## 1
Amino acid sequence: MKVRYITRLDKLPQLSEEERRALQPVAERYAFRLNDYYAQLINWDDPNDPLRRLVVPHEQELLEWGRLDASDEASYTPVRGCQHKYSDTALLLVTDACGAYCRYCFRKRLFMNDNDDATPDYKPGLAYIQEHEEITNVLLTGGDPLIMSTRRLAQILSDLAAVPHVRVVRIGTKMVAFNPYRVLDDPELLKLFYEHCEAGTQIYIMNHFDHPRELTPQAREALRMLLISGAQIVNQCPIVRGVNDSAQVMATLFRELSFAGCPPYYVFQGRPTAGNAPYEVPIVEGFQIFTEANRRVSGLAKRARYVMSHKTGKIEIVGVDDKYIYMRYHRSHLPEDFGKMIVALRDDEAYWLDNLVLVSGPESAVKYAAGTVH
């Protein structure tokens, strides 16, 4: 099926002329992109429809709030297009395009003028990976790698497969939600994954479903075909205000993902990225939603961890009581911080580690929260 992309609000007839005028300044600051497959999933009669909220600009995005690189990814970028934050994992940002643009995206800077984070020239990043034998996992991201041609993706996978110490390639994608025909209509893509898995490179497809309604029959069939190809599939998503910020919606998402063979992997605390004010959920509320959703499901539907991708590491939120928020380093940039607990005074308005008053934790976290390390 041919999917048509929409990059201008005036090409979206479901919006009134008044809505287009009001939202145009937002689209000029933060890029807008949609496609007709995903547009037909939206209930345009409901201004609060969660899928509409996910892709259609909101006036409050213009509020002065957050910063474009909220997790300071630039500090972990040894060469353009490559990030190396955790010893055994490297990221290659191989494209600056997606099937559509999530309004809450934490890398919206990639879709703005003068972006130099992502690059189609992945060779400097590849050379860096070749030089670092501790890297066993490479995550292809951006942007969305599945927006690229299969031929282009094949070249990247082939080059990575030739690096002896790279054993796992993860592909971060929302394409199965935004345009499942990318998988359904391309047998060469499935053949590519099969050949690499058979040859010994494990392919993980890190899907991104935010709401149960994205799991259409077409999307479920695309997931099934990915499994048949030999790839492993999981899901990761943030908690987003107005999209999945209810235990019922999140539990349904977890349950349906597990039924589709795509169990939840991470649920993220939304990063304080510029433009994301209308989509943020505070840590305490997010933990309560996540915990209640987990209570309602079983088996691999309970697999997800609730984490914050902070500059200092991937911090798992593990508990909240009347006085404190309890966290631990699930991954850490500094090896000595791995597994260490962080305890902060409970603050129901806080949305990030930097907003919390820490009671205890490793020195790096305490200094960062106190504003002495940036």
## 2
Amino acid sequence: MFDGFMENKDVLVQRTGRLGHLVLNRPQAMNALNATMITIVADALDEWEADDAVESVLISGAGERGLCAGGDVVSIYHDALSGGGHASEAFWRAEYHLNARIKRYPKPIVALMDGVVLGGGVGISAHASHRVVTERSRVGMPETGIGFVPDVGGTHLLSRAPGQLGTHAALTGTMVSGADAIAMGLADHYIASEAVPGLVAELSERTAGAAVARWGQVAPESGLMQQRWWIDEAYAPDCAETILERLVRVGDPGAEAAAKTIAGRSPTAVSVTLAALRRARTLPSLEEGLNQDLRVSLRSLRWPDFLEGIRAQLVDKDRNPAWSPATLAEVSAEVVAAAFAGLGERELALSAPQK
């Protein structure tokens, strides 16, 4: 099915030598993921797993702006308004299965995290075996800004970052550099963006490990790691209000900026994100983290903040969401706890393979 080159509106699927290459191909939408793209990527992985001629897989993005800006949340917005969220649930189920598939894929997957990599873009790349960033990389989970919570295994990854770096990234939704992504455990290898064509060409002829090593460089120092002196202390509490208070007291410009950013995010999303991170830290596998993600995502779909956040940021674009409730103090413990309640027969029910 995927021999040679096949062009689809949303994905380019190519076989070159030893390499199976998937190009997310919606540059006008910064390669935001839709259901068609998830299906094509999953089908290609299924076929290439059984093809001995394919030794490695590469995932990259079309255009100059980046790999992927996340899921198509505007479609989710309209589905929630008129379709009851059924299409959104189906999309998330397929997406989370793909995230787990990438993590457990038996052949090397090289994810080229050049440029912008946000939300669902992290899910399709940061679970791969060879995660490559450049000086152009801007990686983040910005969900709290639209009244949502990091999903696609994002809380699993961020909860395992050094110290409280993951908490900082999740609550603020701030994008980090390629060097920061490596320091946080979201990426492995650093190359110059000008070396990308050489890496892609070499992947068709050599193993993934050899090709990445050939073009890899020592990553610059992580600016985020240099701020751990206040990040680890400020984000240690399990209460979002206390975190905000500590950030204000630090007296550092970075902490002040973080406090201002969090204060502008959805209070409900911030509170549930913090709880999701703390819970994810105790879960034994990515699959368990994704099971939690579906519970939280489906509950988030019913929050007023989710529709309001997408409206303000991506539909009307007035950048002035009216959050409800408006403050962290007004977010009840019951609302937070309800986000994690079991789904019964609707559980995702992923499980890690037995060793």
